[in-house]
Design a protein that fits this description.
heterodimer, A: 444 residues, OB fold (Dihydrolipoamide Acetyltransferase, E2P), Dihydrolipoamide Transferase, Chloramphenicol Acetyltransferase, five-stranded mixed sheet, 10 helices, 23% strand, globular, B: 83 residues, mainly alpha, 0% strand
Chain lengths: 444, 83
């Protein structure tokens, strides 16, 4: 029998709150199924299970704050002999059978419309799975279909909530930087909208009850942002205290990469198109093979290189803060695989709901702030990692080649690395290797 | 597609890509990527959403026409009905 424990969702996580079970005893689960939702200081995380089997019992209840490693559930290889008494008939209404699925029968593949996980999610979200169009194999209703159905239903409510605080984009960014909640700031702009000059660190707070509106729909959101800010603060302080950073930068001519992308995308449907960050991430992941001391963990002054290359991608959240979920084995993914991982990951990060597997520790981080307009970013290393690569904005710059000056699209790549583990010479070699790889994009 | 339909489609697609942004704050000729902090992946998701809803491929060379709300409306209303 296996155990399902509270996973470590990041180097700085000590505990998490199990907010929701998506399975119950008797449910059959497959490796990779999302079985629970855990809230950490920083985000909401859908926790996947790493073992296939049948849930025999849930050890902890919803709402409990639990240290990493706590046993949450037991997973058996066969269904339990008897059903737990608390299993009420109402939760199984409409299912083909009140008995746990027979693994033998399932193995031979009778038509199953939706998995237990999907059923539970649907129940939780109040969605009737029978009314959802399935996009999975054989028209199977997937988790995403159910979420989508729930989202569609919730849309008018969300839209109304969003309209309640009018604000300018610059005000939103400032508020996010300062960790302020827009709804709490009185606006002095047109129609009472919140504009940049309203955003002060000590801005007066608007009383929550106004215009007879119902209480704020997301009471936890402000806390979450405060927690996220604190978590970032403590991790970055630790980084600056413990890690002797050194910084390097180099200019990379991205003409070959951008023209190869443009050409390659001509024959690709929208959904299959590639973007430059995919090439940058792949090049970084491959360059690690030449300079392995950029990839791994330094704990108590001892460096342990990592074989696999899990690239953390720093993604900024519009509500403020940054998360750095991992793209696993980025060096071995094809560009297409990398691209679809990237799109899904950025989408989830924006929505504030991550998956447990992507929160497990990246071995090196890439930040791509350049897309928002900066030329170069000198990053702070995520401990216990030892390197962070930053890519700046692509701009046309004068480049001398073969005695001629021409305008070519270029970007500045930077490296922040741990001097306990490597020296500038090796760091320079690493950036040079990234540059080299980007000159032959067709080989990535 | 009428202007109204195009506008609704743009709103609903943007809401999926960037759930927390307020499109009312974006003027029709403001650059979407800048106003809404969309990176290249967000923008790709946006174009993919429009493409899926209209059943039409939107080639990359047309992206510059779609940089503003007004540009997107013009682009979508000019599409001939899908075959």
């Amino acid at each position: 029998m296996g155990v399902f424990t509270m996973p470590s969702l990041g180097a700085d996580m000590e505990a998490g709150t199990l907010t929701q079970w998506l399975v119950k005893p008797g449910d059959e689960v497959h490796r990779g199924d999302i079985v629970a939702v855990v809230d950490t200081d920083k985000s909401t995380i859908e926790v996947e299970i790493f073992e296939s089997g049948v849930i025999t019992d849930l050890v902890v209840g919803e709402g409990e704050l639990l240290p990493v490693g706590t046993v949450l559930a037991h997973v058996g290889t066969s269904p339990p002999a008897t059903l737990p008494p608390e299993r009420s008939p109402s939760t199984v209404t409409g299912q083909p059978s009140v008995h746990p699925p027979d693994p033998a029968a399932t193995a031979t593949g009778p038509p199953v419309l939706h998995s237990p996980v999907v059923r539970h999610l649907a129940e939780h979200l109040g969605v009737d799975p029978a009314g959802v169009v399935g996009s999975g194999p054989g028209g199977q209703v997937t988790r995403i279909d159910v979420e989508h159905a729930a989202e569609l239903r919730a849309k008018p409510v969300q839209a109304a909530a969003a309209l309640r605080v009018r604000s300018s984009p610059r005000a939103r960014r400032l508020a996010a930087d300062l960790g302020l909640e827009l709804a709490e700031i009185p606006g002095s702009g047109p129609g009472g909208s919140v504009i940049a000059r309203d955003i002060q660190p000590d801005a007066p707070r608007r009383t929550p009850a106004r215009e007879g509106a119902e209480p704020a729909p997301q009471p936890g959101r402000s806390d979450r942002q405060t927690n996220l800010r604190q978590a970032i603060a403590s991790l970055m302080t630790r980084s600056k205290r413990e890690i002797p950073h050194y910084y390097l930068s180099t200019t990379i001519d991205v003409t070959p990469a951008t023209s190869w992308l443009g050409h390659s995308n001509l024959s690709r449907a929208v959904d299959e198109r590639l973007v430059l960050p995919a090439l940058l991430i792949k090049a970084t992941a491959l360059a690690v093979a030449q300079v392995p001391e950029m990839n791994g963990f330094c704990i108590d002054g001892v460096f342990t290189p990592s074989g696999p290359v899990h690239v953390g991608l720093a993604v900024s959240l519009r509500s403020g803060g940054v998360v750095a979920p991992a793209i696993h084995d980025a060096d071995r993914l094809t560009l297409d695989q990398l691209m679809s991982t990237l799109r899904a990951l950025v989408g989830r990060a924006r929505a504030g709901v991550m998956r447990s597997s992507e929160m497990s520790d990246p071995t090196i981080t890439v930040t791509n702030l350049g897309e928002l307009g900066v030329e170069a970013v000198f990053g702070v290393i995520y401990p216990p990692q030892v390197a962070l690569v930053g890519f700046g904005q692509v701009t046309e710059r004068p480049v001398a080649r073969d005695g001629m000056v021409g305008a070519r699209p270029c970007l500045t790549a930077t490296l922040a690395a741990d001097h306990r583990v490597s020296d500038g010479h090796r760091g320079g070699r690493f950036l040079a290797e990234i540059n080299h790889l980007l000159q032959e994009p067709e080989k990535l | 597609m009428t202007r109204d339909q195009a506008h609704r489609l743009i709103r609903s697609t943007l809401r999926q890509v960037a759930p927390e942004v307020d499109l009312d704050q974006v003027s029709p000729d403001e650059t979407l990527q800048e106003a809404l902090d969309l990176d290249s992946i967000d923008f790709l998701n946006f174009v993919a959403g429009l493409s899926k809803a209209t059943g039409r491929d939107i080639p990359e060379r047309d992206y510059p026409q779609m940089s503003t709300v007004e540009g997107c409306i013009a682009y979508l209303t000019a599409l001939s009905p899908a075959d």
